[in-house]
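chain below, 64 aa
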Amino acid sequence: MTDNNKQMPLYHHDQKAYIQQMYEWHQALAVKSGDEGVYHSMRASEYRSMLEEETTTSVDYMFY
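prediction:
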């Protein structure tokens, strides 16, 4: 794991980029053993779903 993956990504007003970074961050941490790895694996799956949804849904009118 690189140093970039040790700290959770920060949001910089680019929703799609943030979701991608969070997916990659959780995916990198999913290799940990035990409950922590399971948690990060689940979160990576959630962010992957959000990325797939983002490609089919316009978010111009949505507020986060």
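The helical segments are 15-29, 34-56. Residues 15-53 form one domain.
thats it, cya
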